[in-house]
Amino acid sequence: MKILNFLFLLFFFCIGAQEQPPAHDFPRIRSSVAVPVRIPLSEISSLVNASVKDLIFEDQSYTDNNNDQFKVKVWKTRPIRLVGGTKQNLLIEVPLRIWAEKGIGTLGVYSYQNTNFETVMYFNTEIALLNNWTMVTKTSPMGFKWVSKPMLDFGKIKIPVTNMVEASLRKQQLEFSKKIDELMLRQLDLQPYAVLAWNQFAQPFHVSEEYSTWLKITPVGVKVTPLVFYGNAIDVNIGIDTYSETFTGNKPQAATLVKKVQDFASVPSLPDRFLLQTTANIPFSEATRIGQQLFLDREFDFLEGKSKIKINGVKVYGELDRVIIEATTAGTVDGTSVISGIPVYDEVKRMIVLSDTTFKLKTKNILQKGAALLFRNRIVNMIEEEYGIPTAEIEDMARKGIHESFNREYYKGLKMSGKVLNLKPSKIIMNPNGLTAVIDTEAQLHLMVQGL
Q1: H/E element holding 96?
Q2: What is the pTM of this model?
Q3: Range list of H helices, 323-438
Q4: In the chain, pLDDT over 70 holds for what percent of residues?
């Protein structure tokens, strides 16, 4: 059964043409995936009730127990109820109906009467999780409460059989305590959840066929927080320590599946979030289109309004680690301005902009030095202030898509809920065909267990 396959399919976002970027060595990021697991006590209660027959106990012999001339049957009248305690324990309530029959007489001649009555037995189960995933439970009887006390009516003689019934109940409570421990050990095994989460990362995720981008999550360790008991559920956080790697090109090698997860480290708490890196590719054709939309056919005054300059051509391409914008102008300056800059992400503007810009003018008409400087400052400032590749739509669509993928029940009984806490480009990488934005995503994920 797969749970986390779908979590990373929306982390790759692309715009523009379908050029193929070359392979790039992305950093190996140490991160962790927190999987908060909630086990509703109603689910455990359902399993316990399904395992315990309605007829819990019966004594059909008059002659056992030193010829006590006593028979008894004990039924469960309502579902067994579990409630979370305050000290890593469960309080268990078992409502019972009891039928008892007693004979009185001498010399082997007996007169029999029977009666029905009700009681409630109580138990306390202490639970501890060892670092080797072994669950330790200790269930202790906590007595019982009579709803109606047993009394046999032989006409003039009324015989209370409370003591006899209580002796049987105490014996059954001890036996039932062992049965509860056995059931709890079977149902409160947390290692399968850790194995499930661990193995989901064995196969690299093909996050983009279009750009042949792969995301590989390599688990390296497990951390677990103490069990937390509420009135209606048990919570525990399983943290999978991972290395997150992004690859372009060929599919990276898959990891080996595991049947058991290594011993975990106990920690008081886990950050309920994880960090992954993926990519978004913006081809230079798209960068050029944005530049043309902003500047093509724009006019601006020059030399205090005495002349005009018109931009009649814009081209964007890359060279080493820099973005080159060529702006062809006509008018007072007839030539090509080459503005070069290092692409960076501006978090305020939510754009990829240029920093550390340089300027070079290719022209046949030679301006006086002062005029050339004014023109340089004017066009460079305009490019720096206005040109940018918007990422807001990419980020907003990412948040929406991830939120939708996090809030579904992919498999019966396993419901995921979560949200994106933060998503933004952190680094811009040049490639021959365009820009590759490395996107850091910080998200939150909950795994709700229903129907164990």
Answers
A1: strand 89-106
A2: 0.62
A3: 369-386, 392-406
A4: 83
